[in-house]
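Protocol step 4 of 6: structure prediction from sequence.
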Amino acid sequence: LHSMNAIVTGASRGIGRGIALELFHTHRVIATYLANRDQAESLRSETGCEIFRCDISKPDDRAELIRFGREIFPDGLDLLVNNAGMAPRERRSHTLNRHRAPIPDVNPKP
């Protein structure tokens, strides 16, 4: 049995999934997801981790995650990986252009 406990938010896919896949070798893991239940179930099948649906933007969901974590990990939490993110719902190209900083011209001139 693993003696360390971890929660990984946004763990159903991408970087969060990769982190959960690595941590399950050394930790008991709760993996949170929001919309990708099938991928979260796949992670649970692969690792034996607990999964928990959580919208981190909602205080009630965060409170439920804390309650669930205390239930699953009565001896405490050792690691929290805050991977879940909230991106604006506007077009990506518009977002990139609006937030893009100019690249300084640092190349030497002949």
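Step 5 (inspection) to follow. Residues 59-72 form the longest helix (14 residues).
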